[in-house]
Amino acid sequence: MTLIDGRNRRAAALADGDGPGAVGAEPDAEPGDAVLIARSLEQPEQFAPLFHRHAPRIHRYIAQRLGPDAAEDLMAETFLVAFRSRHRYDPGRADARPWLYGIATNLIARQRAAEVRQYRLLERAAPGAGPVARSGDEVGERVADRVTAQSLHGPLAGALAGLPVRVRNVLLLVAWADLSYDEVAEALDIPVGTVRSRLHRARRRLRDALGGADPTLIPEENAL
C-alpha cells in the first residue's frame, strides 16, 4: 500500500516539477545525470528528471530488501537526501546510480532488524515466495535478479539473514542493483579490494548454506 506522508508529497512535487520556479521539461534533450545535478543547484526543478530516471530501480532494490510496504517511504527519503546533498556530488561521475544506491543502502542499514526479519520469514516460506516490488516498476524489470526471488526462501534466505550487514550490502548491490565492483566501491565509499573480499565472504557463506551451490550467478569475468 502506498504511504502518503510529507516526505512522499515533497518527493512527488519534486518529480513533477511543481516546486517554486518549476518549468517544463527541456524539449528533445536528455542530459546526463551529472549535468542535471549541476543544473539543479541553480534550478531545483532540473532534479526532477533524475527522479523519474532512477526512482523505479531504487524502489525495486529497497522492496527486495525490506518488502514493498517500506519501499515507498524509503525511496522518497533517498531522493530527498540526494536533493539536499547534491552540492557535494562529484560532477566527474556521469552516472548517479552508485550515489543513489549508496544513499538507499545507508537508509536500509538503519532498518537492519526489519531486513533480517524479512529474510527469516522467507526462510520459512514456500518455494517461490519472495519480496516483490510494485508491478508498475517497468524500468526495474530489466535489473537481473541474480539471487532470484524464486530461489529466495529456505536456506538461501536464512543465509542472507546471517550475513554481516556490510557483507550483505556488497552482495546485494552486485546481485540486485546490478552494479559493477567499481560502482559498489563508489556507492559504499570503500576500496575495490574490500568489495572483492566481502563478496568472496558472502559467496562462501551462501555456498556453505546451500551445500556447495553458488546462487549468485555472478559472471566468471568478475569472479575472484
What topology emerges from the helices and strands here?
Elements: H1 6-16, H2 33-40, H3 48-66, H4 68-84, H5 97-109, H6 112-123, H7 154-162, H8 165-175, H9 181-188, H10 192-209
Report on the structure:
With 224 residues, the protein is mostly helical. It has one domain. It is built from ten helices and no strands. The chain has helices at 6-16, 33-40, 48-66, 68-84, 97-109, 112-123, 154-162, 165-175, 181-188, 192-209. The longest helix is centred in the N-terminal third of the chain and has 19 residues, at 48-66. It is globular, with a radius of gyration of 18 Å.
Q: Summarize the biggest pleated sheet.
A: none
How far is the N terminus from the C terminus?
A: 41 Å
Fraction of residues in β-strands: under 5%
Number of helices: 10
Cα-based radius of gyration, to the nearest Å: 18 Å
Helix percent reads: 55-70%
Envelope shape: globular
Number of DSSP E strands = 0
Helix-strand makeup class: mainly alpha
Provide a quick synopsis of the model.
The chain is an all-alpha fold and 224 residues long. The chain is 56% helix and 0% strand.
Key words describing this protein structure:
disordered C terminus, mainly alpha, disordered N terminus, 0% strand
